[in-house]
Each structure stands twice: as structure tokens, then as C-alpha cells.
Automatic annotation (TrEMBL):
Stated name of the protein: Zinc ribbon domain-containing protein
Alphabetical list of PANTHER family matching this protein: BLR3430 PROTEIN
All copies of domain ChsH2 rubredoxin-like zinc ribbon, residue ranges: 16-53
InterPro entries xref list: ChsH2_Znr, NA-bd_OB-fold, Thioester_dehydratase-like
Length: 155
């Protein structure tokens, strides 16, 4: 039986088959953007807004910081001790238009050796975990290939 692709958290990014974008929310009063999404009240302490609209976030941002996880975290982290630990790269990306920093894992094969602060990266579909029935989907950050047109140069 084919496994279903299921978002690890519903509503944080676009559905299968659509152009991949992270989804946040924007306050109608102060225009602040939130990710993870905030749907019931504005988190800006100086704002009483309670109406927020879903907005797709910028596809690209710049590396603000990064690190890697080379060992298995202790409980309550859930992982199968029978499976070899595979290091992963964690990247904090600044989205200039939204003025926020979004954490995410690096795309498969991306290591800290591939990264530098200020480097341009883009949000791409990723897989967090797989089991017998599901492929749990998430987002990854991937360096934008050198030579690709930069967002600022296209507009
Ligand atoms: Zn607000």
C-alpha cells in the first residue's frame, strides 16, 4: 500500500502539488508577520490586533546562523536507538521582508561546511521522518546555486 505524504505540522507550508512556500500569518493592524503562524491574537506587545491573515513567506532568505547535531539528543527526544544516528544541519534564516528568523534543517547533503552567514538559501520540501504508513513532510533550507539570479536582481 502506498504511504501517504503528511505534513508534520498542518498549515505551516503549502500542500503537495502547489508551489512550495512556508505559510505564516500577518496582523491586519500592525502588519507584523508570524511564523510559526499565530491565528488568534497578535504577538506584538504593542498591538491589540486579533485578526491575522495567512501569507506565504519569502521563498529565499539569508543564513543568520547555523549548527549541526552530531549526536542523538537525550529523551524526551524520540528516536530509534537501533537506527544509526545521522547528523543533521540546523539553519536559522533571516527573511528580510518579514523581519523574522525561521529555523529549519538543511536539505539532505547540506553540511556546515557548505554554509556561511549571509549566504542566500531557499525553502524546499523535505522529509522529516518515515514510518510504515506515512512520509512526514517538512521544509528544508538549501543554498541557492551560485550563478542563479538573485531575487533583488530579478525585480
Ligand atoms: Zn498586530
Amino acid at each position: 500500500m502506498p504511504r501517504t505524504r503528511t505534513p508534520v505540522v498542518p498549515g505551516w507550508f503549502t500542500a503537495e502539488g502547489e508551489e512550495f512556500r512556508l505559510l505564516g500569518t500577518r496582523c491586519r493592524v500592525c502588519r507584523s508577520v508570524f511564523f510559526p503562524r499565530e491565528d488568534s491574537f497578535c504577538r506584538n506587545p504593542g498591538c491589540a490586533g486579533t485578526e491575522l491573515d495567512e501569507v506565504p513567506l519569502s521563498r529565499r532568505g539569508r543564513v543568520w546562523s547555523y549548527t549541526d547535531g552530531r549526536y542523538r539528543p537525550p529523551a524526551p527526544y524520540v528516536s530509534d536507538p537501533g537506527v544509526e544516528w545521522r547528523p543533521y544541519t540546523l539553519i536559522a534564516v533571516e527573511l528580510a521582508a518579514e523581519r523574522i528568523v525561521v529555523l529549519g534543517q538543511g536539505a539532505p547533503g547540506v553540511t556546515v561546511a557548505d554554509l556561511a552567514v549571509g549566504m542566500e538559501v531557499e525553502a524546499v520540501p523535505g522529509v522529516l521522518n518515515e514510518d510504515a504508513e506515512h512520509i512526514w513532510t517538512t521544509w528544508n533550507w538549501r543554498p541557492v546555486k551560485r550563478g542563479a539570479p538573485r531575487a533583488e536582481e530579478r525585480s
